[in-house]
Amino acid sequence: MTQPKVLISDKMDPKAAAIFKERGVQVDEITGKTKDELIAIIGDYDGLAIRSATKVTPDVLAAATNLKVVGRAGIGVDNVDIPEASKKGVIVMNTPFGNSITTAEHAIAMMFALARQIPEANALTQAGKWPKNDFMGVELTSKTLGLIGCGNIGSIVAERALGLRMKVVAFDPFLTPERAIELGVEKADLDTLLAKADFITLHTPLTDQTRNILSKENLAKTKKGVRIINCARGGLVDEAALKEALDSGHVAGAALDVFAQEPPAADHPLFGTPNFICTPHLGASTDEAQVNVAIQVAEQISDYLLTGGITNALNVPSLSAEEAPKLRPYMSLAEKLGSLVGQLAHDNLTTISVEVEGSAAELNIKPITAAVLTGLMRRYSDSVNMVNAPHLARERGLDIREVRHDREGDYHTLVRVTVATEAGDRSVAGTLFGNNEPRLVEMFGIKVEADLAGDMLYIVNEDAPGFIGRIGGALGDAGLNIGTFHLGRRAAGGEAVLLLSLDSPMPEPLLWQVCQLPGVKTVKGLKF
Ligand SMILES: NC(=O)c1ccc[n+]([C@@H]2O[C@H](COP(=O)([O-])OP(=O)(O)OC[C@H]3O[C@@H](n4cnc5c(N)ncnc54)[C@H](O)[C@@H]3O)[C@@H](O)[C@H]2O)c1
Ligand SMILES: O=C(O)[C@H](O)COP(=O)(O)O
């Protein structure tokens, strides 16, 4: 195996490069490149390690002909075009926890800075003034903190704020009542939060639902004298409306670590506004957080490039260290079953369903489905993998269904793949022998037992004496060696299925010749 090559394109703790080298991954650290400069070199790399500065746009991805993985040393991935990466089969990962504490602490630091106007007081004092009577702060104790977004960072902020004896009200549609009780926060709708909070801090990603969540209209619903902190993403607060609300005195203070456009223009309207403070996207900038995210991203990228292990991926189901060894043989079975239906079923598939029963029903079905789709879609594209297969399948209008059966069947474990075709449903099923050897056990309702590997020949014929001899003869005369021979039939004298493994591919004229043998209904060369 050639050594994979990774580019670190944003400033990252040196531990990242050290880990790549230790793990046997070649690494180049080239930061500060323009988009065109990045496009010129990205084709050399299998992996890209970034923070928020590098923009992984469709044109960068188009030039990234060898790229397999983008690793974000941090949380937000709004600088990566994930749908485009998925189409290209590139995994996108982040490090969802490495900088959470640090960012929560930055939000708390901003809250104190606003409450006591520390930046202004510092600036004036160092300018030789002694403005002791100009700064009257507010206490945090007993005040209400409104949390918009109560995920990893929001819940750490909540714990810290409760420690400061604040009351915490949270708006987060995904926060369960049980989790709210566990955290000690009051779950509320947005309007209630806006009406109650003395301080509001934002901790959501930027999405279509959260963009301008603090709009002019919502700012008007806040308590007079509210103070606002955004250490999440620019664009959550309407900056023009915030400026107006600060100027009118409705908002008593605002602290932004993030801006809609970064870096903001030097003449940004908020700059110089009294009671406005800001930092240049420093939420994650501590030694501890940067070491955490650098180590995590380098380990995750190395794992994927060297072993196929997937952690914290955003566009493909993760495979944990415990799950991976159990799922690997299933994924091999699933890919073979998907490939089999893909090679045999005619076009215009409308639905594919993946059913699991027995031991398979206890596993994470998502990677199994992704592997089925990889096998299925391989007939359309050589560059298909677990990342882009589900996307390609959906693009072709395929409805994907997953069913987990809680029932005992004939096999200790079973994966069944059924596709709806114009000719009706076509179903194949497989199991694992000895827990790790994939075997086809049923094909279109007929029991067979076959290893799907290499070149194979599939024949449907009428079960009649002498047929096997005729096939053996035809292949033997053509110098084609049969490796294994698997036969299944509905009933004696009924329809039979023959699966032969061959030592070399079946030449086209021989396929035609076999087709002419008496009793043959279908012949197809297969490849696994
Ligand atoms: N300033 C920085 O340097 C810095 C550092 C780290 C993270 N961040 C940003 O902080 C944000 C939060 O990070 P996290 O790790 O807590 O993410 P998270 O995914 O753990 O939490 C986000 C929360 O937002 C909630 N949410 C989603 N849509 C919502 C909506 N419409 N209304 C209310 N809540 C909604 C989700 O349910 C979730 O609980 C991210 O945008 C991340 O990029 C910024
Ligand atoms: O989403 C994040 O992790 C933060 O915005 C940190 O970004 P940075 O790595 O550019 O500091």
TrEMBL record:
Q: Keyword check for Cell membrane, yes or no.
A: no
The entry's protein name is D-3-phosphoglycerate dehydrogenase
Q: Which reaction does it catalyse?
A: (2R)-3-phosphoglycerate + NAD(+) = 3-phosphooxypyruvate + NADH + H(+)
Q: Which InterPro entries match?
A: ACT-like_dom_sf (IPR045865), ASB_dom_sf (IPR029009), D-2-hydroxyacid_DH (IPR050857), D-isomer_2_OHA_DH_cat_dom (IPR006139), D-isomer_DH_CS (IPR029753), D-isomer_DH_NAD-bd (IPR006140), NAD(P)-bd_dom_sf (IPR036291), PGDH (IPR006236)
Give the organism the record lists.
Sphingopyxis panaciterrulae
| Keyword NAD applies | yes
For this chain, one GO molecular function annotation is: phosphoglycerate dehydrogenase activity
Q: Where is the D-3-phosphoglycerate dehydrogenase ASB domain?
A: 326-443
Mention one GO biological process in which this protein takes part, according to its record.
L-serine biosynthetic process
